[in-house]
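Request: Mind sharing a record?
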Amino acid sequence: FSSMILWTDEATFTRRGIFNSHNSHVWAHNNPHTTRQRNFQHEFRCNVWMGMLHDRLIGPFFLPDRLNGESFRRFLSNDLPILMENVPLQFRQNSWIQLDGCPSHYARQVRNWLDEHCAHRWIGRGGPVFWPPRSPDLTPLDFYLWGTLKNKVYSTEVISLEDLKQRITNSVTEMQHFQECRTVTNFVLRRCLACIDVQGQHFEMRH
């Protein structure tokens, strides 16, 4: 069943990111007195939507910086079908969609759209199948995708918003060829069972 769920999430990527200074070296015989800028006069960011379905990454799609219910409904109605075009028909017709219940997901117009177009096949706050709040360790985007993606994007310093978006797009394309996606989505079941065993309390996964 977990292989038929479209796991979704949004994350913000900023100029500063998680740049790792260990990946930036300057070699010289004498002290080059090199500095690296940490604070910037001009900041930029982008809001990224991603999905995972079985062994596929869906996206990225760049959402408005200020996401609300209406803009998210338009995304579901107009943009998500385009992102899903290359997904086999079997998955598109039978897949469930999971949302984490943030305010834009819980907006009435979004829930109405999901009820109309996804029938009973959506998981989230106010939906036919409830998704537990404050549970990021249960979704493959949180416990795998975002960390892996940001490590790739911020391997060297980002210089512009266009550069940031291109790095995200290129990194996702590269990750499409990884075999981990199917393994990660299958691993969700173990995490959900562990959560049930402790009746929703905190738990630690042991690999």
About this structure: The two ends are 22 Å apart (CA to CA). The longest strand covers residues 5-14. The chain has one domain: 2-17+45-198. The CA atoms of residues 15 and 41 lie 11 Å apart.
